[in-house]
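hi! just following up on the protien thing from before. the input was this:
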Amino acid sequence: MKNDGLQVIDLLASGMRKLLKMRFADNTLIANLLGSLMIQQQYNNPPIDIIVFDEKSAALRKELDELVKILIKNSKRMIR
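and the predicted 3d structure came back as:
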């Protein structure tokens, strides 16, 4: 199919959006799985940057931080 790449990207983006909103039954498992599909940025920088504008819930931010750490830990290194 001509648009297979776009469909895969759409599925990954949807999964990431759902994970960051913590809408999976097992967010940790999904973070491990999605992280394994990600590639670190140049010079091994994290594959994702999070910008938070609302700091109402420290507990929610802590849980989100843990999910992002899992994503980073499971991401692949960029090949030079």
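The helical segments are 4-20, 27-35, 58-74.
The radius of gyration is 14 Å.
cheers
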